[in-house]
C-alpha cells in the first residue's frame, strides 16, 4: 500500500509540474512580466496572465487597431475570496469571424464567437479563466477588444451596469502603450 501511495504522490507531482512549467524551446523566447508571459512563434502568439486584482485586459495590438492571428491567450483570474467578479466588455469590442472569447468557472461557461459582442455579467465567485483565441486569417483593421475584470465585495450590492459604467471611460481611453493589463483607478 505504501508503494501505491508513493506512485500516486509521484504522479501528482509530475502532472502539477507539467501544468505549471513554461519552457523556452528553440529560437523562441518567452517575454515575462509580473503578471505572466507572452510567447511568439511561427504559429502566432500564446500568452498566459495571472490576475489577482481589478484590471482591464486589452487585446495585444489594441492601440494599433489589430491583434495577431493565431492568438491563444488565457487570463487566470483569482481575486479576493470576498469578491464576486464583474466582467465588462468594451463598447468597441470587435472580433473577426473565427475568433472566440470564453469565461469559465467551476459552475459555468460563457462563450462568444465571431462578431458577437460579449455582454457584461456578474460571475458569482472569485475565480475564473478568461480565454481568447483568434483564427489563422489576419483580423480586419480596427479589430480590438478590452474586458474589465472588477472585484465587487459580496457584502456590497452594485448592479453590473453601475460597475461597468464606472470603468467605461478608462476602457475607452485604451492602454498606456503596449500594456495588456491596466489597473483600474
Residue runs with pLDDT of under 50 for 5 or more positions: 1-30
The total beta strand count reads: 12
C-alpha termini separation: 55 Å
Strand content: 35-45%
Q: Record the strand order, biggest sheet.
A: 1-2-3-5-10-7-8
Major pleated sheet: 7 strands, mixed
> Which secondary-structure class do the elements indicate?
alpha+beta
List the helices and strands in order: HEEEEEEEEEEEHE
Total number of helices: 2
Average pLDDT figure:
77
Radius of gyration: 18 Å
Helical fraction: 10-25%
- Morphology: globular
Describe the structure.
The chain has 185 residues and is α+β, with helices and mostly antiparallel strands. It has helices at residues 2-20, 160-173; strands at residues 30-33, 36-41, 44-51, 55-58, 71-78, 83-89, 100-104, 109-113, 121-123, 127-133, 146-153, 181-183. The strands form 2 sheets. A 7-stranded mixed β-sheet has the order 1-2-3-5-10-7-8, with no helix packed on it. The chain has a 5-stranded antiparallel β-sheet with strand order 9-6-11-4-12. Strand 7 (100-104) and strand 8 (109-113) form a beta hairpin. It is globular and about 45 Å long. Residues 1-30 have low confidence and may be disordered.
Amino acid at each position: 500500500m505504501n508503494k501505491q501511495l508513493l506512485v500516486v504522490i509521484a504522479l501528482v507531482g509530475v502532472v502539477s509540474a507539467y501544468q505549471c512549467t513554461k519552457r523556452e524551446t528553440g529560437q523562441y523566447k518567452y517575454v515575462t512580466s509580473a503578471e505572466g508571459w507572452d510567447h511568439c512563434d511561427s504559429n502566432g502568439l500564446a500568452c498566459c496572465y495571472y490576475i489577482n486584482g481589478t484590471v482591464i485586459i486589452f487585446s495585444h495590438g489594441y492601440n494599433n487597431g489589430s491583434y495577431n492571428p493565431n492568438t491563444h491567450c488565457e487570463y487566470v483570474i483569482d481575486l479576493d475570496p470576498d469578491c464576486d467578479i464583474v466582467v465588462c466588455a468594451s463598447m468597441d469590442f470587435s472580433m473577426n469571424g473565427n475568433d472566440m472569447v470564453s469565461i469559465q468557472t467551476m459552475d459555468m461557461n460563457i462563450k462568444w464567437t465571431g462578431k458577437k459582442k460579449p455582454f457584461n455579467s456578474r460571475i458569482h465567485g472569485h475565480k475564473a479563466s478568461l480565454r481568447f483565441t483568434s483564427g489563422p486569417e489576419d483580423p480586419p483593421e480596427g479589430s480590438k477588444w478590452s474586458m474589465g475584470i472588477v472585484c465587487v465585495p459580496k457584502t456590497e450590492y452594485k448592479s453590473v451596469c453601475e460597475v461597468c459604467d464606472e470603468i467605461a471611460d478608462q476602457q475607452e481611453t485604451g492602454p498606456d502603450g503596449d500594456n495588456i493589463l491596466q489597473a483600474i483607478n
